[in-house]
Amino acid sequence: MLVVPAIDLRNGQVVRLRQGDDDARTDFSHDPLAIARTWSDAGAQWIHIVDLDGAFAGSPQQLALVRRIADSVDASIQLGGGLRCKKDVHAALDAGIDRAVVGSVATAPTRAKPLIEAFGDRLAVAIDSRNGSVRVAGWTERSRWSPIDLIQHLTDLGAARFIVTDVGRDGMLTGPNIDLLEAVTRNTDRPVISSGGIHNLDDLRALSDTSVEGAIVGMALYQKRFTLRDALAISRRS
Question: Strand 21-29 relative to strand 162-166: parallel, antiparallel, unpaired?
């Protein structure tokens, strides 16, 4: 199981939000490049970057910074936040990332299908769920989709990979939503990455007993509840 450290960018700084709420933000570093190098040097194969400015604006805002991060580390980079059209996904890939993550556009299948067809395995779809419905627009709006229905539909359209977040647990250190993840993996044959809620190493051990491909970890690392090296050691044993 992959352990993927997260870097959330807001106004050029590394921050963490609670449940996607910009008013419940904690600033952790003024040097995103140093954080990225720390994760890469510790052995991370992938780093998950979220352009929060882009998520709220609806188009990517920090590609210049993302390019500098991608150029400074050996780890592969996946980027989400405001990527809603081919032009923006192309721009993100041209900035040196390895995988683009789309969210809001996925709830409009007529817009999602061309992206899925154009970018294949270089595209992951974020399924951000709260209270049984998929959230969009930086998690501020509720869509008509349930996570399972949307995943099944996007699987039929050819989506290559999903990143599943329980918004209510993101940044809250309350543990991952195992029930949701198991339901998701039962309803798609595509790789699924868990995001949100990781509190301790036992949470990672619990995830390693599921069928998820990996786990994105943020707040627990920034609060030093465990080290990335310890987390990666668990992932190698799973």
Answer: unpaired
pLDDT at 171: 63
Question: Hey, which residues are catalytic here?
Answer: 8, 128
- Residue 5's identity, in one-letter code, is P
For the entire predicted model, the pTM comes to 0.93
d(CA 27, CA 205): 28
User: 86-94 vs 109-119: helix axis angle to the nearest 10?
Assistant: 30
The pLDDT value recorded for residue 17 is 77
Residue 143, SS3? coil
Low-confidence residues of the chain: pLDDT under 50: none
Classify burial at 209, counting beta carbons within 10 Å of its beta carbon; exposed 0-12, middle 13-18, buried 19 or more.
exposed
- pLDDT score, position 105: 87
What does residue 100 show for φ and ψ, rounded to 5 degrees? Answer: -100, 145
- For 2-237, the fitting CATH number among 3.40.50.300, 3.20.20.70, 3.90.1140.10, 2.40.160.40 is 3.20.20.70
